[in-house]
Amino acid sequence: MADIHAILDQYWGFKTFRALQEEIIYAVLEKKDVLALLPTGGGKSVCFQVPALAMDGLCIVVSPLIALIKDQVYQLAKRDIPALAVYSGMGYHEVKKTLQNAAFGNYKFLYLSPERLETKLFLEFLPAIKPCLIAVDEAHCVSQWGYDFRPPYLRIAALRAELPGVPMIALTASATPEVQEDICAKLSFGKTALRFQQSFDRPNLSYSVFSPPAKEIKLRHILTSVPGSAIVYCNSRKHTQQVAGLLKLNGIDADFYHAGLQAEERSTKQDNWIKNRTRVMVCTNAFGMGIDKSDVRLVVHYDIPDCLENYYQEAGRAGRDGRKAYAVLLYQPHEVDSLRGMLNIRYPTAAQLQHLYTAVMNHLQVAAGVGEGRSFDFDLAVFAQHFKLNVLEATYGIQALAQQDILSFNEVFYRASTAVFIAEKEQLLQFEQVHSGLEPIVKALLRSYEGIFDFPVHIYEGLLAKFLRVPKAEVVLKLKELHKYHIIDYQPATEKPQIYLNRNRMYLDAFKIDAVSIALRKQKQAKRIDAIEAYASGITECRSRFLSLYFGAESLKQCGICDNCLRHAESALSTEAFEQLHQQILQHTAAGAITINSLLKLLKPAKENHIWEAIHFLETENKIVHEDIGVIRLK
Questions:
Q1: Do strands 34-37 and 375-377 pair parallel, antiparallel, or not at all (unpaired)?
Q2: Which CATH number fits the domain 571-635, given the four candidates 3.30.450.70, 3.90.470.20, 1.10.10.10, 3.40.30.10?
């Protein structure tokens, strides 16, 4: 077995591991199941990539986002580590070729989207692939109580039955204690499983919340006060353009980013920001996943996120280099009302889902009893207009159908160009003699792409252009000519949303929805909204400590640098008044659990920050404990 420190040095250029990485890696090498909770930027990938490189065999990595899969494979390739990927939307022959390479080639990683785990083709190749490790990225997706539940993740446990003795590592940046337990149960972790949780404290990251009358003015002031690279998160695509436009008008270098942009445009914008040619990126949460940029000095949430899990993950993209950084939330109380108002839209009734499902199947022209495994380009706006549906309700309805494991929906799916020869070889020879100007492109296709006579293969016009030493536009033009002459079937690259059917179209009388699970997830989301409201509206609780407690960490330490800690430092409390507050809190909690809001009212006219200080002291002394968020009791 190779030395893990030598592997780290060879491929990543580091001499030492970050906190917990080494312990996690050794646990994996001992073939124990591992749940690793590491914050954004905590180096999760290294925790499975290093042990996989130290072991014989290939590591299967299950990941939910195609963009993330592609980025990981690209990053590994840059380090000369061979990796493959299979995800929804790939053609049968391309998938088969990839799995053949995984089974018989010299590859160390196979990235899979979860819906691919139970396909017949994958299961046929699995014995030959002989995995040494299964890594589950974004593991919170396996829990229906998590904020991003994805039913295909539930298939991972079935994979374990096919691979007895193969260890599994599950990784996530944000999971509450309830979700952590659910992950371990749903993934069938063994009795020797270990759980590692890195501290949620970020001593260099200062959290602040502001409720300004005009957000755009406050944002401009913050960006003027804090120099360096910045991210501004918004909840809608339209908002990203508006905010970026306002910043530009005020002389601040900004651009916008969202999933609705074309791949090339997104790539250019992202590259400009990474290389500091653009200072501020105003974006939806489609931006940031998998991006390795350590010198972000500021992350601003212009709109309130719908849960602390998303907020913590996105805010954590600031200050990964260990230097002072800021995470700011701009908040207005009416935003929380809007989040609560969205609950009925986000969690439709069974009747609403049945109506939507019928409309989707009719739109795709899928007959009852067929369709499983098929992919379709899907323009949601066109669909909603055709069936006279509200776009927002249609969006959340399709997401709800995905959570019932009926279909999968990729908001942005990039399909590379494909080509296949449809002319016979004798016909092709005659064609080349008559059209000598097209002979070079024909030869280039035949030399570059194995199997192009048998099935459609992905082709890359840019590489063909380099091979032929001509402009890319000329290659595209010649490919279209070959298509026109019926020599090849050429399908240019497209980037459209896509629906993948996980099962055949159900007959109307057989349509079933798990209404109970929808109702429970709605309740959980309501609690997550309560939590983000408590975080945003609190003016005394240490922000960092609040987040740590939410995620089940034991830290009682005050960060000293968030807005509430700094506010608290401005006022002091006498020893006599401090002792009096202790006694009053103990008296009120003696009768049973009490909400902190009720306690704050009972202890008036004492200042709220002084009451919080007394509560923290009693917790440190183990005299009271948090029973739930915002509720305390005697220990």
A1: unpaired
A2: 1.10.10.10
